[in-house]
Amino acid sequence: MIADLDYGLLPDESEDHFLGLEQAQLVGTDTLLTTRDNIEAVIEAKAMMCVYGPAGSGKTMSVNSALRHLAPDITHRLELRAGPTPRDIRHGLFQALGLPGEPPARPIEFDTLLKEALAEEFRVLVCDEAQWMKKTGFEFWRHLWDDKRTNIAVIFAGGDGCYKVLRREPMLASRIFIWQEFTRMSKDEVRATIPAFHPVWTDVDTALIDAIDKQAAHGSFRNWANITNHGM
Known about the structure:
The protein is α/β, with parallel strands linked by helices. It has helices spanning 30-45, 59-70, 86-96, 107-120, 135-146, 160-168, 170-173, 187-197, 206-217, 221-231, and strands spanning 5-8, 48-52, 75-80, 123-128, 152-158, 176-181.
């Protein structure tokens, strides 16, 4: 049975915020700007990148925002869940790339088809929720990227699990051009970011924002979106 995956192009910006929070704004934090710079470098080098950190820290939002600015028409995104195998990833790429016909039954033929498609023009492939992948999944991506015919940059985004798997394997780790760790927002970052994040917080006293973050949000964008949604 094929694992559960989402396929396709970049989602609309309104989908980046947890629960589709209305009136939420993308804030130009240092992390967001660093992500844009790093992805630009990865695209120029046609390399691979690993973006990792705790859930709710803004990884997907930052990556999507950067790619909307840098490569909106050549980005193909996969979101992996439930321990995907190389077979699942093959089928995910087949759909994400919009390839015609039926997927080949044999792996060697499938890989040939994918490599031919990925050689036609430069593409950016985003593997989101990459913490679900095991070594075999990362090896499959390396196999595609290593092929001299393919013309791709690959961005892995996920929790600490993807970082640990990649770092354990020298052949994989040595191919990662940029590692970017996401962390929860500090107290100062929360104070600077949250009033601009949503109109609900624009005129709220700093002491209240500090208290909410300490007791409930803990520097997480996702937590702040959830709290904001309840307070509207």
